[in-house]
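Below: protein 1.
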Amino acid sequence: MHLNIKDGKVWLQNHSTERRVAHELVAMGIDQQDIVLRFQYPTIWQYTDFAPA
């Protein structure tokens, strides 16, 4: 797993675990719009509740 904090958002760069890290971050209080799923193709971002880049 690789994540960064950039421009006030959490960027999940690589997701190589079975854990649902983005959902765990939401459970800890981070808004979905503050989480970018960078490991997914940009064309997929519009279909998620998470932030676009």
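Below: protein 2.
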Amino acid sequence: MTLKVKLSSVCLGVEGMTCASCVQSIEQRIGGLPGVVHIKVSLELKNASIIFDHSHHTPESLAEAVEDMGFDSILSDTTTASVVLTETQLVPIPALLTPEAQQEALTRLAQLQAVLEVQENKDQRGVSVTFIPSLISVVQLGEVVSSMAPLLEVPTSNSPTEETLVPAPATVSAPATSSQPQLVKMRIEGMVCLSCTTTIEGKIGKLKGVEKIKGYFVIA
């Protein structure tokens, strides 16, 4: 089945935001509306860039949705929606991926905000992905799939039949034998209030593999 959707983008002025929590609230509420594919809110520029399905929304309806949250949304006479181009590409699936890993790769691709449709293509051993090229590239899509690659098996010099596990390339390196939780401390710039801390904890704490997160906001 071929996906037929008409996407548009619009930039709305937004007044009344005071901190990063306001940005997060708008992105979550408006981004969760049916037909909204992507939203990026800027506190500094006081605007919201939205990519949406034209059959679900108009710039006016999106502005009203923002105003329903208690913010002022500015939609001038010169504000128009621009056409957003989509692209469909075949992303190869590594031969070493197990059926379970393949399904996980399909799930991860489908969860990406810039991905509109994912279909497995067994004849060409790949995944047909329809996406927004202005938000994500084919290379990044391939990295999502390749990140699911298992440990590669290569013969050792001692025995032709003996095999050694070699970790597949990864963006972030970690001890190959470690199965214990890892602790990492990060310095985060840009937080302006305790609400920012709560937002970060809620967002990062929901990520797969994250067991616990604690943020601290220190007033200098």
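The chain has five helices and ten strands.
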